[in-house]
Every structure is written in structure tokens, then in C-alpha cells.
Write a structure and sequence with these properties.
The protein is mainly β. It is built from 2 helices and 21 strands.
């Protein structure tokens, strides 16, 4: 992927550092206001649109911003923190371990850790930490590592409930920047972009001329309680965009912007309604923006040379 020097310098400063400080900012309302913090339990928030329903009076902040409640040094990661039920979940890499840390949101006190070994190395030299944020669903937390390890642990104590090595199970060829599509919970399913390839496909994406063949596992639905595969659909490779769900005219829809285009499907059954090819022909180009649903319209963007489609 070609970047101008200024952009590359910014990426280097932001993403190649070994550690960064995670700051939890305390949002204060006027004295006497009833405060009820809403959870942010997955990528893009509860409505998958990056919008919070909370109403916050910022007048007391003036020009100084909200006061810092606590700080915490964490490992290497692209994944945002997830907040649910008074706890903060952070997924980061610490040396050769991928670690999920659970903290008390008010104090920053650590409650538990869960970790597993990882040897992921980024093909472009960016950091080797996770790309996906944790996803919390009631008493379970799901993490999806850059190397393709999918784990479900107890939100109460971090005990492992199940795990799937998606690279081994679906024969996934390492993408340019690893696994970066956050899973999403829909009903009793955990729906994930996988994008495996047939047996014998070279594990190096360049050995496949940047175009490994797919094996109909672009979208995989797992039983969220057991990790068993319920269905796998879409003859596509994975992208860096997460699945989005919406109710349109009384019907539930799933939209996944995969490597080669947008797939519309029925989340409960996996029935595909349509596939719209939409990708820049440059090998290194990636689809990384989640679909945006507005009424009965779906908006997608592809990068490198920017195109939009409504």
C-alpha cells in the first residue's frame, strides 16, 4: 500500500509504539443530574453506528475537558476498549501473549486476565497486536486475535469457555494486516468474517499473487455458547470491515462488506439475498469501512482511489 511520507510518519508514530497509555475520562454532568451510563459492548457501540444515546452537559468542562479519573499502561493494540456492566475490557499484546484484561471502570483496578500465546507478525511492519476490540454479550466476552484465534471467555472471571483456531479450521491465508474484522453477536449467533481458502493454497498472500481462492467461508456463524459452526456462506475472502445488522421493513438483515464486495443476507439462516462486487482492482487495496444503513439504503466506500456507492 503506497502512502505519502506525512501519512506514513503519522501511522508510524501512532501504531509502531510498543505501549501507550489508556486514559479513561470521567464524563461529569451537572450536580443533581441523574447519571445512567450506557454500555459500549462491541465495535461501533450498541447500535453499530458509533453514536451514543447519552446526553451529556459539557458546560462544566469549559476549555479543560473532562477530568482524568485514572490511567493505565497497556500493551500493543489497535482494538478499542469495550465497556459493559461497570467493567472495561482491553485486548492487547504483551510480548508473545495476546491478553484480555478486565478492569473495574470506576477505579481502573484489575479484576482478571486471560491470555494465550501468539506469534503473529505484520507483513508491513506495523504493530503485532490485536486489531479487534472485545465483544461483550451478557456473561461472555469474545476476542478475535490478529493471528485468527477466536476465543470466548466468562465475563465474570475470564475462564475460557471455548476457542476456535480459524486459520487451521478454515485454511485462512494471512491477509496484509492480519485479522481485523470484529465479530458481532446476532441473537444466538456470533457472526464472523473468516474468508478461508482451499487446501494447498500458499500461506503467503503474495505467493497467491494477492488473490487466494475462497472456499465459501467469507461469513461464518458460530453458536455463541459452544463455538460450533451453524452455517458458513459467501465465496469471498475476509475484509477489515465488521458485519452490520439492521431491521428494514420488519425484516432482519445482515450486511458484510467482504474483500470483493457487499453481501446482504438473512442473519438467522445464512440465506444470501445479494452479492454486489465492489473493490478497487489494486492488489493491496482493502475494504475496511463498515456498511452504513440509513432507512432502506446501504452506503459503502472502497479505499485507495475513493469510490462511494449508495
Amino acid at each position: 500500500m503506497q502512502l505519502n511520507q506525512r501519512t506514513e510518519n503519522i501511522f508510524t508514530k501512532l501504531f509502531q509504539s510498543t505501549y501507550f497509555l489508556f486514559l479513561l475520562l470521567c464524563f461529569l454532568l451537572l450536580i443533581g443530574t441523574d447519571v445512567h451510563a450506557l454500555d459500549w459492548s462491541g465495535f461501533l457501540g450498541p447500535e453499530q453506528n458509533s453514536k451514543s444515546q447519552e446526553k451529556i452537559n459539557i458546560t462544566p468542562w469549559q476549555k479543560t475537558g473532562p477530568p482524568v479519573l485514572w490511567t493505565k499502561e497497556i500493551g500493543t493494540s489497535y482494538g478499542a476498549p469495550t465497556i459493559a456492566n461497570g467493567r472495561v475490557y482491553i485486548f492487547a499484546r504483551h510480548r508473545d501473549m495476546a491478553r484480555l484484561t478486565c478492569l473495574e471502570s470506576d477505579t481502573g483496578d484489575e479484576l482478571w486476565q486471560y491470555e494465550y500465546p501468539t506469534d503473529y507478525e505484520d507483513m508491513y511492519g506495523y504493530n503485532n497486536g490485536p486489531r479487534c476490540c472485545p465483544v461483550v454479550d451478557r456473561d461472555r466476552v469474545y476476542i478475535f486475535g490478529a493471528e485468527g484465534e477466536l476465543h470466548c471467555v466468562s465475563a465474570q472471571n475470564g475462564k475460557r469457555l471455548w476457542e476456535v483456531d480459524t486459520v487451521a479450521k478454515f485454511n485462512v491465508v494471512q491477509n496484509f494486516f492480519g485479522v481485523a474484522s470484529a465479530p458481532a453477536v446476532e441473537g444466538e449467533l456470533l457472526i464472523v468474517q473468516i474468508g478461508g481458502s482451499p487446501p494447498g493454497t500458499p500461506k503467503d498472500i503474495w505467493a497467491s499473487n494477492g488473490k487466494p481462492k475462497p472456499n465459501s467461508s467469507g461469513i461464518v456463524a458460530f453458536n455463541k455458547h459452544t463455538g460450533e459452526v451453524v452455517y458458513q456462506i459467501a465465496d469471498e475472502l475476509a475484509s477489515y470491515a465488521s458485519p452490520i445488522f439492521a431491521t428494514i421493513d420488519g425484516r432482519r438483515w445482515g450486511f458484510a462488506f467482504l474483500r470483493g464486495g457487499l453481501v446482504g443476507f438473512e442473519p438467522e439462516t445464512g440465506k444470501i439475498d445479494f452479492h454486489y462486487p465492489w473493490r478497487h482492482p489494486k492488489i493491496e487495496s482493502v475494504n475496511a469501512s463498515c456498511p452504513v444503513v440509513a432507512d432502506d439504503l446501504v452506503f459503502i466506500v472502497k479505499p485507495v482511489i475513493t469510490y462511494t456507492l449508495l
